[in-house]
Amino acid sequence: MSQPVTTHLKARIPVLYYQQNLGVKEICSLLGVKNSLVYKTLAYITAYGVSYNPHACPRGRHRILLREDIKFILSLVEHQHCIYLDKIQEELFSLHGCWPSIPTLVHTLRHLDFSRKCISAHALERDDIKCAAYMNTIADTVLHPDMLMPKGWALVGRRCGQRRFFVRGK
Questions:
Q1: b/e map of 30-61 (b: 16 or more CB within 10 Å)?
Q2: What is the pLDDT of residues 139-155, one digit of tens each?
Q3: Which of 45, 64, 115, 149 lies at 20 to 30 Å from 83 by C-alpha?
Q4: What's the chain's Rg over C-alpha atoms?
């Protein structure tokens, strides 16, 4: 998809066509636009007197969340890792007077690089020092790394008694 053309560039087309007496191909090569844009702009000049359609609807929508709202959402999620979307909605309404929809919040959180992965509160509160101490006790107990065997694995040539794995969709 090509880049949208500014109204300033469209305003140059009738000047080049009517005052400079350039042809459509010359205008296209000079401005780097397509033939269809030049013909549409000249048709708008004839019909409306301006280089664009004044009756066309504006593109997109007005943003419901301002930058301050997005910063507030970011600080709220960083402060409370496990928070529901409706709680974010209520906090935004109570402090900023803005009531975005749940899909708007999901879209905003995706743009802030948050995902919907489930992390338990226990995993979020884990202590890295305790984890390192536990790994050190394992290192003291185990003499050789080959002695460690993850659950659900067996030696080569032996049958695994119980294997657990994730089945998608269940």
A1: ebebeeebbebbbebbeeeeebeeeeeeeeee
A2: 887 777 666 655 555 55
A3: 64
A4: 31
